[in-house]
Amino acid sequence: MPRWSRFVAFALAVCLAVCLGSSAVAQELFSGITGPLSVQPVQDRGVVNVPYITWGGDAATFYANGGLETTGDSIYGRSGLKLKLTAGDDFVQQVRDYVGGKTPFLRGTFSMLAQASEVIGKDPRTKPVVILQLSWSAGDHIVAREGLKTLNDLKRSGKKVRVACQQGGPHVGLLYDALAAAQFTNDDVEIVFVKDLTGPSGAAEKFRSDASIDACCVITPDMIGLTGGLDSKGTGAEGTVSGAHVLVSTQNMSRSIADVYAVRSDWFKANRPFVEKFVAGYLSGADVVKPLRDGFEESQKLSPEYRKLLAMCQTIFGEEVLPTLEVDAHGLLLDCRFVNLPGQIAFFEQSGNLNGFNAKLASSLDLATKWGYAKGRYGFDPAGLDYQKIAVMAGVAYAKPKMIVEGEGVGEFLDDDLDENTIVSFTIAFEPNQTDFSVDRYGAEFDRALKSASTFGGAAVVIRGHSDPTKTLVQLVKAGLEKGILRRTGTQGDYRYFINSGGQSRELDLSQMDQMVQLIQTGAFEGSADSPQQTMQAALNLSLARADAVRQAIAAYARKQDIAVNLSQLQPVGAGISDPVIAKPTSMAEAKQNMRVEFRIVKVNPEALQESDFDF
Fold it and tell me: Signal peptide position in this chain (predicted)?
């Protein structure tokens, strides 16, 4: 089944009523988008207006409320709440209603709240208090043309890569995180802002119609339209773009887009019991919705209760958005990673969570100020809820998530073609025979690896050790000359080698490492005092030992710093001499470039992914 995304999940959403021009728009302060606003007290009508957006995580809100208006037998009804759920896909209008007192609630992604931070955070009355994380997205993507293979390729010397992205929407945060993973900024690329999330004025159509656009940020339906599928490449047929492929996806970058609810500070202080009931009711609803969704995905048998929920979503979002229940409505829920109660604890309370509240707030405010949505930093507050009390209210088990997780949560990386499956990479160098990696020297690299593991929760962090091939090549040449397999001509520094095979002589290029490895593996060069086969194996063992030593050092660093990490993501691999930076070094300085450990964020087999009980 297709993994439909945030769908028109801000399709009108963050089209954002951001009426910012035609096909491409300029950056603008968020205050300029909303226009002048006057803070008004929250209106007391007996029923609280609560916005929702077109997203699978909101299905739990519908379930808890019994529909758009609270029913007496619903979770919220039984707790004494009276809610009117209102369409909130127009986030600018949400902000206007929030400041104007029509609702105390805001519903959006964390980065969207940050983009509006100067508008909603200056006045202490409207300063947001984030009360709930609903989910992480698994259905948003950056699609690129043929020449861009990894996030590292987003920065090219002499020419800026052009990336189409909807102004003010959820993908601004995705693009910010993707650039940060490669240690780039918005100055390293040219961002072409478009008006809408999807449709004629969206990023996908800009990518399709303008060959100068190198990449675009899109939702799942548009991604499929451009590429043919998550692991496919466009052919140019049936509307796809030739060579278009997914550069990065929230399937792998699973902790980039956080969906949240926030309320006004003045209202929160006066209505804390209401907020506790709202959060508990949502978590109780999610505790029902998630098993219903997962059960159907596994069995393909649609239970009456799940059919009723999907039909409710179809009615609320509209048949034009969700034409079918089993594909479209169910697919919308599949793109959502519910975090449930353990996720609240991890997000709001774990100081070592590198994608928790504090970390997300810092990076989101960086985005808002550096990208021109705000002139100053105006933060949010966490609600500081008692989750043991919330667990009792919600009727769910209280389970404090682990900081260090062993052996769960990630599948096998696709090592058949490591280059094709690499999302982003970076390297650390070391000295000959080094197997010790201290925090003092490599702390910054450890931090980057742990941050990558946290943000790319659906990917493997492959720690790939490499060795220099010089000694192996010297022994291959020596043995080959002694046995008469090789013939050498020329002078030092300009030697040429010829190999005798089957009575014929052909030139041998020592820089073709794959060929050298295959020759050594035949055993034809064995028998002399120095064995190139044994040396090559020793280099492989050393490279794996280095990779494992780095993994152990990172794990020890995470434990000491109390940083949350799933250690099963960190997978050491030995490459030996097979992939040198310089295949035939001419100096120790060049040889040292081959002595390295490479960190690669690598796509994993989606069929092997396991969704943990928590998602920190």
Answer: 1-26
In this predicted model, what pLDDT tens digit does every residue of 528-577 receive, in sequence order?
Answer: 778 999 999 999 999 999 999 999 999 999 999 999 999 999 999 999 99
- What are the residue ranges of CATH 3.40.190.10 in the chain? 37-132+261-394, 140-249
Separation CA 113–CA 117 (nearest Å): 6
Q: Where in the chain is the domain with CATH 3.30.1330.60?
A: 405-469+536-608
The whole-angstrom distance between residue 406's C-alpha and the CA centroid of its chain comes to 21
List the Cα angle 207/234/146 in 5-degree steps. 70
Q: Is 516 a residue whose pLDDT tops 50?
A: yes
| CATH of 405-469+536-608 among 3.30.360.10, 2.60.40.1930, 3.30.1330.60, 3.40.50.1000 | 3.30.1330.60
Residue 423 CA to chain centroid, in angstroms?
Answer: 10
Which top CATH class is 37-132+261-394? alpha beta
Q: How far is CA 276 from CA 175, 327, 475, in A?
A: 34, 34, 71
Q: Is the pLDDT of residue 608 over 60?
A: no
Tokens of 415: 């090592």
**What is the structure's pLDDT at 493?**
84
DSSP string, 553-566: HHHHHHHHHT--EE
Q: Kindly give the pairing relationship between strand 565-566 and strand 404-405.
A: parallel
Rounded to 10 degrees, the C-alpha dihedral 573/575/579/581 comes to 80
Helix 470-483 to helix 513-521 angle (10° resolution) is 50
SS (H, E, C) 430-495: CCCCCCCCCHHHHHHHHHHHHHHHHHCCCEEEEEEEECCCHHHHHHHHHHHHHHCCEEEECCCCCC
Q: How many helices (H) and strands (E) does the chain have?
A: 22, 22
pTM of the full structure: 0.88
Q: How far apart are CA 137 and CA 297, in angstroms?
A: 18
Fold for the domain defined by 140-249? D-Maltodextrin-Binding Protein; domain 2 (3.40.190)
Cα–Cα distance measured from residue 433 to residue 506, given in angstroms and rounded to the nearest whole number:
35
Q: What is the mean pLDDT of residues 111-137?
A: 97
Neighbours of 253 (CB within 10 A): 29
Two structure tokens written together for 573: 């691999």
Backbone dihedral region of 21: left (phi > 0), alpha (psi from -120 to 50 degrees) or beta? left
Report d(CA 266, CA 75) in Å as an integer. Answer: 26
Nearest to 355 by CA among 437, 241, 451: 451
Token readout for 319 is: 């048949």
Residues in the chain: 616
Residue 157: predicted pLDDT: 75
| Choice among 93-97, 194-198, 415-419, 423-427 with the minimum mean pLDDT | 415-419
Angle in degrees, 0-180, between the axes of helices 272-299 and 340-349, rounded to the nearest 10? 130
429 and 468 in contact (C-beta within 8 Å)? Answer: no
Please, which pLDDT band fits residue 611 given cuts at 50, 70 and 90?
Answer: very low
Which pLDDT belongs to residue 212?
A: 96
